[in-house]
Amino acid sequence: MTHRAIEIIRGEHAALSAMLRSIVLLLAQHRHNGTLPDFTVLRAMLFYVDEFPEKRHHRKESELLFPKLRARTPQHRDLLDRLDLDHARGEARIRELEHALLAFEMMGESRRSAFEETATRYVDFYLGHMSLEEREILPLAERSLTAADWKDLDDAFVANRDPLTGATPEAEYAMLFTRIVNLVPAPVGLGPAAA
Prior knowledge:
By secondary structure, this protein is mostly helical. The N and C termini lie far apart (39 Å). The chain contains six helices and no strands. It has helices at residues 4-33, 39-72, 77-107, 112-144, 147-159, 171-183.
């Protein structure tokens, strides 16, 4: 049986993965073309990452899902602690990335590499984190949680969904989503081998 909370987590992970990969592709495209990226686009994308996944998605996992799993599967406490630590470190990492973007925007080309390296580290960190949750935590939850646990989780996750997954967003998130979609250029090839 598939639970709404699991579907929502996977959908939010997919939306965030797409956003993160888009940042990397956008940077690669501009590096290849020898142009500076549109900093407004990058700021909007990083604001989304900070605003929804860091502040809402992680909180739902750390405050709702992980405590239920700790109660039902105490032998997995170390893994859950590691993921909670990732969530806590995520805020510092996004601040570091936002600062590197500001430095790139203000100081120019001399800060491009530092920003790109920071962005790549952040994206790799986040994709690895989500992969671990999907590979280990979600199957563990499906095996271990009770019907009452799932009712609580499903209700909480349905009430607080990411607009990039197609959920009807709150008005302010609808505006953010629309702005990002309108700002991000359509992907183009990076050379003759690109399809």
